Amino acid sequence: MKITVADVEHVARLARLELAPAEKEQFASQMDAILDYVEKLKGLNTDGIVPTSHAVPMENAFREDVVDPSIGLEKALANAPDRAGTFFAVPKVIE
User: Fold this and answer.
1) Secondary element (H or E) of residue 14
2) Residue 95: what pLDDT?
3) What is the spatial distance between Cα 39 and Cα 45, in angstroms, rounded to a whole number?
4) Helix 21-42 to helix 5-14 angle, to the nearest 10 degrees?
């Protein structure tokens, strides 16, 4: 598959990116190389290979739920840019 400058311009427009003409050529070349490599990978025989989600064997990485004491109201609001009593004060966004 050949990626053209027009393809790069289309993707850039969707991503709202401004690219210089040299960048468009460079990205077209790089994207084309990536797709060529994907085509090579499609040719590999993967029969009998189990899909994995991790490169190394891994057990459940989640910790047990433990109830800890709260940090307290003052610590929670210590770095608040603005507060209203015991709450974070935020700008109104709905009219």
Assistant:
1) helix 5-14
2) 77
3) 13
4) 100
pLDDT in tens, 47-81: 888 887 677 777 777 888 899 999 999 999 999 99
CA distance 28 to 49: 33
Give kind and range of the element (H or E) at residue 88. Answer: strand 87-88
Structural domains of the chain, with CATH: 5-42 (1.10.20.60)
Q: What is the dihedral of CA 76, 78, 84, 90, to 10 degrees?
A: -80
pLDDT greater than 80 at residue 11? yes
Provide the CA 25 distance to its chain's centre, in angstroms.
25
Distance CA 92, CA 94 (A): 6
Supply the pLDDT for residue 36.
93
Res 1: pLDDT: 65
